[in-house]
Amino acid sequence: MSRERIVVLIDGKDDFGHARNIIDIIEKDNRYTIAGIIDNDQRVDDITFGYTVLGKEADLPVLQKRHKIFGIVVAAGDNYQRYKTVTRIQELCSDTGIAFVTAVHPDAQIGRGVTIGEGTVITAGAVISTCCQVGRFCLINTNSSLDHDSTMGDYSCLAPRAVTGGACTIGDFSAVSIGAVLREEITIGEHTVIGAGATVLKNVSSFTVAYGTPAREIRTRKKGEPYMT
Question: Are residues 91 and 144 in the same domain?
């Protein structure tokens, strides 16, 4: 039985490892065939993790027809960078149309009643418990956990081993960093970053950087400000 053909877009050198992780997910999930790689920094016909670089982002409309490409997965670890890339692709492919594929590792645990938006990537060992709502283009990393009845807004992410209690809300574009823990019923605003190892015991405002145990709001941050340093 033939499978739909997709491409993986590597969004800069810093996301090379993330792209390999996504390739591993797609191979193990076995729902799609990877036609090749899209990368602005590599030459055409270079080989990445066993797949040929087909071209650059701007070539997508032509490549889509040539290789009968159904969809794409964007490998961008930074939430706002992922948004900008997705927006560019939507504009480039507005005439041809392209699907944004959701990639879920077979070793992730997805509970009953969970909804997952397009373009979201869920890696090995992640746990999404019952009745959670995961938005579009989210990233849920290795061994992280979203407990029951929680919500992740579009373009938000959980870093490896980040954990939430039940009924938490993570706003659009917000990031919960490595090893951070949210008590039950916590709300994290939009465009907010929770620092590594933080213990969040009360709600955190939008456009904020918060960290510590217990976590406290340290400073404000701007829309799109880099946080993966």
Answer: no
- The structural domain count of the chain equals 2
* Model confidence pTM above 0.85: yes
Is 54 within 8 Å of 63 (Cβ atoms)? yes
User: Each residue's pLDDT tens digit in the chain (229 positions)?
Assistant: 568 999 999 987 778 899 999 999 999 999 999 999 999 999 999 998 999 999 999 999 999 999 999 999 999 999 999 999 999 999 999 988 899 999 999 999 999 999 999 999 999 999 999 999 999 999 999 999 999 999 999 999 999 999 999 999 999 999 999 999 999 999 999 999 999 999 999 999 999 999 999 999 999 999 999 998 6
Structure letter (DSSP) for residue 59: G
Asked, for residue 26, whether it belongs to a domain, the answer is yes
DSSP string, 93-115: TTTT--EE--EE-TTSEE-TT-E
For residue 202, the 8-state DSSP code is S
Among 100, 134, 168, give the residue marking a domain's end: 100
| Domain termination site, one of 78, 100, 122 | 100
**Does 226 map to a domain?**
no
Beta bridge partners of 152: 134, 170
**Domain interval for residue 155:** 103-219
